[in-house]
Amino acid sequence: MRSLRHRALPLLAMAALLAPSPASAQADRRLDDLKDEVLDMVQDDAKMVQEIVDMLFSFGELGFQEFETQRYLTGILEDHGFEIELGVAGMPSAWTARWSNGSGSPVIALGSDVDGIPQSNQKPGVGYRDPILSMAPGHGEGHNSGQAVNIVAALNVQELMEREDIDGTLLIWPGIAEEQLGSKAFFVRDGVFDGVDVNLFTHVSSNFNTTWGQGGGNALVSVQFRFKGETAHSAGSPWRGRSALDAVMLMAQAWEFKREHLRPAERSHYIIVDGGDQPNVVPQRGTIWFF
């Protein structure tokens, strides 16, 4: 099924590039032949897909820290003639890679997330929990796989575009800090997708299933609530204090009573970011972070 997943993307890209215009009665007759050919080309590059997957897995970088990933992927694309821009949308680890042929239209964008998550370090090829370095970050949601699919698809479509003199632009972009709700809104804000005709996004799935087309997702909000109290020495005169941590814990407990009434598709999670400095000091400040 992995083969199916990484072969579907170039078909979609080719279909977008050769789609009929509103004034055209039928699609380019080359499309079916080119789709068959690009399937074989992608299959021939299966080893490259696996190498990229394994390399990104070895980096396992947290959000906004994906610098080895940036260096590695942009290096591959630059070697194949893509124009690289670093630090996109004010994020140092963000980047885009762009290649155009002929008129440069239509513009096909290919995106996939690249960040890891905390405490998910894991030995490769092991079907049970076995970290290389305990508590270190790693790729716990498969974000090491999507760019491998995108890049191999883009390079093969690029080859056919050059050979067949097909107009268009390929734009490769990474989902930076997706686990922290970062990058995509910033890319939109700064116009990274202005002029893009089709944006194809790739994400690994579970249970070896493969889908394409319109996908579902969650609209997420990241918010921190900060409370301010009055500090005091807990061992000497705790009655003089007003604990900000008490406010944090009361809010968390109140939300637990609300959680049982959430609809099945809704999710809510939180952590206590700041609960004080040490037990014998009444916390003056407290912070709770919700997704």
Describe this structure in words.
This protein has helices spanning 2-17, 31-44, 46-59, 67-79, 146-164, 184-189, 244-259; strands at 83-86, 95-101, 107-113, 168-175, 198-201, 223-228, 270-274, 285-290. It is an alpha/beta fold and 291 residues long. The chain has two domains: 2-201, Aminopeptidase (3-Layer(aba) Sandwich); 223-290, Alpha-Beta Plaits, CATH 3.30.70. The strands form two sheets. It has a five-stranded mixed sheet with strand order 1-2-4-3-5, covered by helices on one side. A three-stranded antiparallel sheet has the order 6-8-7, with helices on one face. A hairpin with an 8-residue loop joins strand 1 (83-86) and strand 2. Helix 2 packs across helix 5 and helix 3 (46-59) runs antiparallel to helix 5 (146-164). The model has no long low-confidence stretch (mean pLDDT 91).
Q: Can I get a quick summary?
A:
This protein is α/β, with parallel strands linked by helices. Helix content is 34%, strand content 16%. It has 2 domains: 2-201, Aminopeptidase (3-Layer(aba) Sandwich), CATH 3.40.630; 223-290, Alpha-Beta Plaits (2-Layer Sandwich).
Question: Looking at the structure, what is the overall shape?
Answer: elongated
Radius of gyration: 24 Å
CATH class of the largest domain: Alpha Beta
CATH architectural type of the largest domain: 3-Layer(aba) Sandwich
Q: What's the β-strand tally?
A: 8
* Number of structural domains: 2
CATH superfamily of the largest domain: Zn peptidases
Which percent range describes the beta-strand content? 15-25%
